[in-house]
Each structure stands twice: as C-alpha cells, then as structure tokens.
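Hey, I'm writing a tutorial for new members on how sequence and structure tokens pair up, and I'd like a real worked example in the thread rather than a made-up one. If someone can provide the structure for the chain below, I'll link this post from the tutorial.
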Amino acid sequence: MQNRDLTDAEGAAFLWMVARHNTKLKELSLARNGIGAKTAAALAQFMRFNTSLTAIDLHENALGDAGASLLAKALSFNATVKTLRLSRNEISSAAVPQLVDGVVSNHELQHICMEVSGGTMSPGIHLPSLKGIVPADQIDLSSRSFGPLSVMIVAKLFDKYRPQVTTLGLDRNPILAEGATAVAEMLKQSDDLVVLDLRFCALGAEGMAVIADALRMNTSIETCLALKNDIGPEGAKAVESMLAYNSTLRVVDIQDNLVPPDQKKSLTEAARKRTSALELRV
C-alpha cells in the first residue's frame, strides 16, 4: 500500500481490515501516504496481538510524536517485529524517551530507522550490538543518513546497556549540534570507548564545543576524529581549551574545519605543552 495517498482515517480502516482477514501477514508497508496518529493507534493494537508480522515500513508519513509514542508502547507487547522504519514522519526529540523505552522492553526488534535522506532501504540502528546481545568491540554506524533522533537513541542505549565497545563510528551522518549534544552526554558516562569517529557530521562550532566539553572529563577516549565539520574559530577554541584538561587523548583530527592559520599555530603549541604525547592533525 505504498504511494496510495491514504488518509489517516483510510489507513486505520485498512489496518482493521487486515487484522480481520490476514492473520499471517509478515510485512506491512504503508510508506509515502498521509497516515498519522489514527493509523498508528490501529497499528499499535494490531501489534499487540499479531504473531506473524516481522517488518513495518511507515517511511514518509505524518505520524508525529503522538503516533511514534503509540507505536513505542506497542513494542512492549509485540514479540515478532524485527524491523521498524519511521523515517520522515515529523517526529521530534520529545518522542525519543518513549521510543527508547519501547526498544528496551522489546527483545526481538533488530533495526529501527528514524531518518534517511532518500528511499527506505537504510538499515537504520542495529540494536543487538548496542544492547550487548551481539558482542562487538566496534560498532560502525557510518553513512546511514542518521540525524539527531537516531544519535539520541544510540546514546541512550549506550548509557542503558554499557556495551563493551571500544570503537564507535558515527562518521558521515548529519547529526548536527543537537546530535553532538547526545554524544557528549554519553561520553561523560562512558569508560570503555577508545575511538570516536565524527568525521563529516556537520557538527559546527556548537557541536564541537559540547564534544570538547565532554572530553574534559572523559578518561577513555584516545582517538577523536572530527575532520570536515565546519567548526571554525569558535570550535577550535573549544578544542584548545579542552587540551589543557584532558591527558588521555593520543590523536585528535580536526583538519579541514575552517580554522585560521594563527589558531592552528596556537592549537599546535597547546598540544606541545601537554604532559602526554598528542598527535594533533589540524
């Protein structure tokens, strides 16, 4: 039922029909319609009692925070859905706590997709590795079109489960300053993460500043890669200030970031003055 221009009421009616006549449905796609909270409410009820559905694709609709919260609650009861796509649905950060609660209480969900720049085939967030169900020392979430919502969920799951991961790759995702704030809060609690890759993440000066502030107190990160983030003079200033407090970092890469030549010289001098060796790429 993709691209059918279903209204919210029509979407809800369709789901009630499916619930009555197709009890063995495995995949449901209502992508690119006009469905909202009414359809989400019907789907939430369907998810509570259905025992066959494994994939739900709701990409590019109008679920909003209300619809997302209804589906998050349904995850607490569902034991079959493995993939849930909610990208492009006017969902804000206000719905993240409910979504995280739903993900935590559900033991079958493998992937949840919150943002995607085009199409519906992004793998989204791989949940088992973040939950520690699938042991891994490296989690690579690069190039998945993640925005702030995805990174907020990743960070909260990191805090909840504390997976023994040493390398986290978030590079090539437009997480912006809002997403960087979620990563920064995670860093303040993490004591296992050694490598953090934030290259090409559109952090800006504000995003770099919150990461730098978190690195002041973090004692595990040895490598921080933040190349090509347009951090400018203000972001570079935050990094320079951080270097006086952090003695754990061994590699910091902030190349191609619109940093003026005189500030590059100042950063290099700050790195030289550290008591511990640091490879600064600027």
